[in-house]
Amino acid sequence: MYIVHSTFHVPLEKVEEVITIYQTRSKLVDQYEGFQSFHLLQNEVKKGELTVQIIWNTKKDYLNWVTSDAYKKVHELEQNYPDQELAAIKPIVQRFEVVAK
Known about the structure:
about 100 residues, 4 helices, 4-stranded antiparallel sheet, about 30% strand, single chain, alpha+beta, Alpha-Beta Plaits, about 30% helix
């Protein structure tokens, strides 16, 4: 199993807007081979810290996704978001290989 976290910090007044964006996301990633699940996580203490967690069967499945046209399309939409403050947020990406269950 392969897990990817993309953590980003959002101004507190825009947290609900960002949560709504993810609640109504395109779900293109869900259709990719090896996709297991998507979660948007909110830090309990630092409410402006959000993490997108996507779980894959394998690292290869993840790499197939990030090199796909669908991935590029999703991220182009983010770059062109009308709120440029949100569009400019850069996540910290961490990748994990599950080594024990």
